[in-house]
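Exercise 3.2. Students should predict the tertiary structure of the chain below and write it as structure tokens, then compare their answer with the key that follows.

Predict this chain's 3D structure.
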Amino acid sequence: MKIKILLLSLLFISFNYNSQNTNDPFVMEINGKGVTKSEFLQIYLKNNNNPKFDKASIDEYLELFKKFKLKVCEAESLGYDTIPKLKKELDGYRKQLANPYLIDSAQNEALVKEAYNRIINEIRASHILIRVDQNAKPQDTLIAWNKINEIKKRLDTGEDFEKVAKSKNGSEDPSVVNNGGDLGYFTAFQMIYDFEDRAFKTPIGKTSDIFQTRFGYHILKTTGERPSRGSIKVAHLLISAGKSATDSEKANAEKKAKEIKAKLTSGEKWEDLVKMYSDDPSSNQKGGELPTFGSGTNQRMIPAFEEAAFALQNDGDISEPIQTDFGFHIIKRIEKKPVRPYSEMKKEIQSKVNKDDRAKTTQDSFVEKLKKLYNFKIPKNNGLDWFVANLDSTFYLGKWKADNLKTNFEVFNLDGKPYTQKQFASYLEKSYRGIKKEDNKKVVDGVFKNWVKATVLEYEESKLEAKYPAYKALLKEYHDGILLYEIMSDKVWNKGIKDTSGLKIFFDNRRSTYLWPPRIDATIYECNSEKNAALVYKMLKNKKNTSEKIIAKVNKQSELSLRVKANKFVPEQTTYLKDRKFADGRNQPYEFEGKYYVVHVNKILPVMNKELSEVKGLVISDYQNYLEKSWLEELEKKHTVSFNFDLLYNLDK
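Answer key:
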């Protein structure tokens, strides 16, 4: 699910003071619906790290708040909150937000300690995966189950785990081709909890039983354990040579990486070389820095990269080039930290546990507490025997129906509300997935237990908004954020992209806004020495010397001697071209910041109109802004908005 609540940072509206609650009066009304002081203040503080309560600051924020509320109000008036896909999305968020309130806090603390112990002790495991969706048809689940069973039999007879994983009927994890199923070392929160838990509980060198996650059926083998190496922050310089690269391209990339490493060894600046040569666009403008990874983080790198990074002994150390599936990396260690003490990490881990699947393991004890709170009772004659007597083999195929159920006994009572046989029958009919074939009583008892648990938790969840104001406020944020995202998509973002005729009219009416400044259509030769620049200049005299021929000759000894760029350039926006006059054809070499440039101009281009195809992204953005502004003007006429400025200008009092 996409997190759309980020839009709330763009928030929120003039006022008839008329609150029913004098302790929490309205600061704003829209179409008679009020926003209380506490609600507004909570949102204002959340969106301002350094909140100010002067008139100018409040007025500035109110303009954003008004726009936000107008859009949400319009979405509600158009029935966006009744659209099935949006209701489903909100229900998904509701479940996520409810999780921290549906756990046993005492047992939850035990999970926090367990997670910390797994952060300070890493485990290594290999796995075999047979893919099957959790909601797959029974026949597909059966096929996957038979496949994983055959693999388990092979392992039990002593076949090598890696060979089985890589064999024709082995693991369906795409990475198995390269790693043989080896996932390397990992810690808490770096795998889904079911997998992590099984790995840490399987003895070293042993193979697990078959188990299921949302990805399918797994068998894993633990192959190592070690104390945590902590977390590390590094930068890298990448010379790209991916899987599709030829042997020649890989050899050239390795040669180039080694030459760059030699430059670093001789004292050239890391940042300069990264900016100049690294092929990683996400990091080459910030010194090659990557997110912190290792124990206590959610980040992992491919094993070869991790090993090379952690092998660096000191901050500032730089590795030799190492190869991965992406090419050749030179890694610089920035900072390495040991795992922090439990006392420092407890709150952070607690937050992760609350959002993680592991929190659900504490629900059994929580459900027992809720049963007592809501006076849970099971009648002596609850009619479950009927299900034991009438369940047959069609249940495991998802075809069993309770059509011949004639009675409707109460099977349990929760907070004075009866739950009946027919309700259980409906739940049972849908619960066949993942159920192993056992005697009917075990199956019925197991499904009944799950139904009771789900019902109790659902009942408690229905009361959360009344019990916990913070939960209610957060749910409101998500509700408004979802509506805002959807109506903005319809009225502004998607319309700006899909309304091609409107976009063209908008562009044609503003052609003079979109102009190319003076440009040159040129090939630029960037050389590492004056000598090489002179050679390039000389070779350009012969028109038969293409860029490819020039590169081959100049870079014969070093891949770093020459780089070539061919494009249309705006000199005044390009540092090494700015304030220089160029003529058609080859231009004399010149030096700029330690590099030598030879510019061959194919054509000098004057100021000219841009075509829509050349500036479409910018025009779409401008058109979207125009659509939003026009739409907001309509909304201000359509909806009535009022403020209580006396309260708004005294929020801090």
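Discussion points: Confidence is low (pLDDT under 50) at residues 1-20. The longest strand covers residues 216-227.
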